[in-house]
Specification:
DNA-binding; homodimer; disordered C terminus; globular; 13 strands; four-stranded antiparallel beta sheet
Chain lengths: 252, 252
DNA sequence: CGCCCGCTTGAATCTTATCAAAGATTGTGG
DNA sequence: CCACAATCTTTGATAAGATTCAAGCGGGCG
């Protein structure tokens, strides 16, 4: 479903910008054919059903995964059983860089998922022989770090509308990076997932979507597909802290 | 000031946990003497005054810095001129991994700072010859990624008391990692910096500190030095979403 | 000694969380 | 193929907490 062209079966893929590259370079496939083939030799292809838990927080992780198709969520469960979603991961994303690594959280498939499975042992020895591969991992990590910083920035927004707008903008951006169409934004996750990602209640998420629709800023075919119809107002929602409570939606 | 033992003049230092190491390993110095010496060969030592801006967001960065002593803040300035602090960086931390890298934000010294300056060009060629160094950088990045995820988690807390408590806990943890004493928590940054880091107003920060003091949970010598005197109640503030508005502070 | 900047405190407004319940949707089993 | 059940989503009222605006306090630096 919604298969991206990014992972085309030629082997594991990593997408990121080269931080030492030119200023405004776009995210791109970092691994060359040879590297992908070499990694493919270590990998097996596995599948997960929708809703299936792939990792549990704190569990011993003996393999990393590289998503081919589908979407997963990475989350932490707090003491009071509330959940915080750390990230949504899509095609070409990597998770499970060891339990001590950046996926010290649980992972669950929110759509059917196909992925390469890479044993960490084999992966690590591959690193020692291949400085180029290691460098690409550094690029990917820097990319993820920036992504997480952006998540943190979204979380500082006070208004629900601002958070939801920035979230939609993010999804749109990720679709573009993956080379998909960008007119329709695809929301594979549940409202409660969005709530847990944005640090707000499900009700607030629902109301924010309602507001955006009522004001004519977005139009939704169904729960999972949404289109931005008033881009200028949408951009105001994203960029500003002070949101006009009921700005006329008349075309400027 | 408050110089840590971590950066002892033997050359650049990186502190992190090995994500492929044992489950509960503590953060430690990753570089060995030889690596530090080799990096020291590339580096020059520079100093910055308190309040001095080291990088401006989007500026061309031709060098990375490794902090020896002092504290800096990394921040982004939004369209409406409001600021969001991405991270506070201490001894052994690294910033400026290129403009495209994870420090695509401005950097400003909040205390006097001494640091190693490493030209990215030399650094990059060093990477190609030294897979071990590259691996350590990966460890550091994974460490920073988790740190940033934790920041995001703090930002999801609704109550000011919870945010401030988690922030104090973080500072305490970082002091411990650096090998400093942990009874007194040192706050080098201004209240407004804390506000910008936690996504709340300065007033809310001030009131939260006031509350913690009034309730006898913390005791402060001055604006910059604070001690946790009621640990059990403090831990409740940190761990819980539902904070008892005026829980008796009587020793259980 | 005085000014500037940072910090604290107070009162009104506003947004969201929370509780509660009804309306959709999905998936399952008869 | 339809009906039921469980889950997800929306909608409504209330209240708690935060932001905002405004003013007073304090401390450091020239």
């Amino acid at each position: 479903m919604k298969a991206a062209v990014s992972n085309d079966g030629h082997g594991p893929a990593i997408r990121a910008v080269d931080p030492w590259g030119s200023p405004r370079e776009k995210a791109r496939q970092l691994l060359n054919e040879e590297e992908r083939a070499r990694l493919a030799g270590l990998a097996t292809i596995v599948q997960f059903r929708k809703g299936e838990e792939i990792y549990r927080e704190g569990q011993r992780a003996d393999a990393a995964f590289n998503i081919i198709t589908g979407v997963v969520k990475a989350y932490k469960t707090a003491a009071d059983n509330s959940k915080h979603i750390t990230a949504f991961l899509f095609s070409s994303d990597v998770f499970g860089l060891s339990e001590g690594g950046w996926c010290a959280n649980s992972i669950k498939a929110i759509t059917p998922v196909t992925a390469y499975r890479l044993p960490v042992r084999a992966l690590r020895s591959q690193f020692l022989n291949d400085p180029g591969l290691e460098f690409h991992v550094i690029c990917k990590l820097i990319h993820d770090l920036r992504q997480t910083q952006h998540h943190a920035f979204i979380l500082t927004r006070r208004h629900a509308l601002s958070k939801i707008s920035m979230f939609l903008q993010l999804l749109e951006y990720l679709q573009a990076v993956r080379g998909e169409q960008t007119t329709i934004i695809y929301l594979p996750m549940k409202r409660s997932d969005i709530a847990e990602y944005l640090g707000m209640s499900v009700e607030a998420v629902s109301r924010a979507f309602g507001d955006l629709t009522t004001r004519g800023i977005v139009k939704s075919r169904d729960r999972q597909h949404l289109e931005i119809v008033d881009r200028s107002t949408f951009d105001k929602m994203v960029g500003d802290t002070s949101i006009s409570p009921a700005a006329g939606s008349t075309t400027q």
